[in-house]
Amino acid sequence: MRRVAVIGVGDTEFGELWDYSFRDIGIQAGLAAVADANISADQIDALYVGNMSAGRFIEQEHIGALIADYAGLARDHIPATRVEAAGASGGLALRQGFTAVASGLHDIVVVGGAEKMTDVSDTESAAIQSSAADQEWETVLGATFPALHALIAKRHMHEYGTTREQMADVAVKNHKNGSMNPKAQFQREITRETVTSSPIVASPLRVFDCAPSSDGAAGVVLCPLDMAKKFIETPIEIVGSGQASDTLALHHRKDICTMEATKVAAKRAFAMANLTTKDVDIAEVHDNFTISEILAIEDLGFFKKGEGGKATEAGLTSLEGEIAVNTSGGLKARGDPIGATGLAQVVEIVTQLRGKAGKRQVKEATVGLAHNVGGTGATAVVHLFRRV
Amino acid sequence: MKVGIVSYGAYVPRYRITPEEIGKVWGVDGKSMSKGLMINCKSVPSPDEDTITISVEAARSMMRRCSVNPKEIGAIYVGSESHPYTVKPTGTIVAEAIEASPHLTVADFEFACKAGTAAIQTCMGLVGSGMVKYGVAIGSDTSQGAPGDALEYSASAGGAAFLIGADKVITTIDNTYSYTTDTPDFWRREGQMYPRHGGRFTGEPAYFKHVMSGAKGLFERSGTEPKDYTYAVFHQPNGKFPTRVAKQLGFNDAQVKTGLLAPIIGNTYSGAVPLGLSAILDEAKAGDRIFAVAYGSGAGSDAFEMTVTDEIDGYARYRAPTVKELNTNLKFLDYATYAKFRGKIILGSE
Fold it and tell me: Whole-angstrom Cα distance, residue B134 to residue B165?
């Protein structure tokens, strides 16, 4: 297996991008990544695109060919593949690109992710997002995505004494990080009270416990590590890649306070990288709800089960903490354009490892982790990155 | 010749309902809805009130306050998005009611919430060109909000009428400017009972972009700035939007508070800026300057700058109720009665 490096990253602002279409933002992010990698379009061997539901959000399928076409690559007839695993679509697309380069099948691969969510009504958007859960056993019975995560939150509070305030602290931290990220959807700091006095969505989760609906795109360029220095000075190596699946429905899990897929994917990634959690300086984790970040930092192994809330409250996951979590603002503040999210995480990790994250830069960051989840944990993808 | 407002009249139904009462039915926290929208209650038309009766009430008050011979009125335009008839004008009934018929031109206007101010601009043109001596411009609505929709907390009823002329004007209309694009933020198709809207899309790219552009366009053309005005009024789909837009433009609370009626009457759509302007004229003094920007979904804005003249001193404001007086002696409804009043209860066939 060849060693693989990220040689270029690019993204759009995240938010309500009503002046741009899906293809506009896909191209913006892709071109930025290609320019960052100092490559030309005719050097690209393959394209992977992470996208959850363009068919329902903008009534457009066949996304792989669409992006290749509008990127000006149609005449080169490169293989263009769409990857879908709900919220983990972006992370999984990265894994496909990684596999293709590592195996020797392709040399230079562009991996993009995009979602245009705000062209439909809020109700429609919620329905589309809930299709990541089990349609026959959950969604059809009225379980929305916030409702399923509310069940997780309630159980976590019951089992481990996690408090309302500790969940609020996740949002407060991520908004603070987002305030230092010019691409973030929300760039204003909030307080605990902002969260605890916002309208209830599904008890105990309130508006400020939930990631927003967003438009946005992100992309990266991969190549074999031994070619990377030909293009840029600071390649970032993908040292570990792990993917795992679990039951689609939440109620089939033996413990809803643990995402086994996250645990297994992390174990596989760490084994491939020959690293441990102690080696990780920064992590972008899948905080689609505040409770999700608490579960993630436990299941990834940074903190013991049940200690995630307390660790957050104690500031251990802040920029200056033991491990800086969601330095970009996370899904909560940076925004969550579903298919783009997994790649926006990579953009942040690479930017941090290059030392180019500005005000939110974590000092001497060497190893970074990206954690992307589909549904309520039926798919998890974990990648580890290291400065070369 | 300086065209302006010769007389005006307003009308708001006395019935009210609170966001708390509506929220109770739909499982929504009415208090935080009320706080978020800055709406304490909204007006509700009784079963025998509609856009025609509101327009007639406002037009009669307008005529009572002046001594203009109704036969000298050459045009009547009624702007509304809730004309009771799809085919058959509202304006002809108003014309008969104020005895202006038959030697005049009449038409109904529609441009979402700014049809009333478009009527003012049309009358300015007709009077200014000498085609008519007086024109009547009315903005009134009994606006619709689907049960349970966010609009239900704000959509209300009311209207105001303006007699536009060039003789004995109580305010001159010194400048007007419109800003229009095709921006589909809010719409109702033929045969549909309730409008649909683009949720948050109705904010930044729709209301704020057009109101700000209308206001700035007028400032540029007239060479004025916020501090030159005594009063300012903006379209008010709720209390929050006009408050924010006023602040962004640089107006202070004192300039805005008189014309800000959404907190006590809700969103009267085509009636909103006309009613806010009426509330200002109820207390304005000679020399006061007024800035107004109406907004209509779809989308466009009409901006005006006006100056109150000495004629206001002899003007018989007292002959008709002020907006403040229309907002007293209120009757609060429960949701069931409100649903009956608004035709939301489907009766079985006999």
Answer: 5
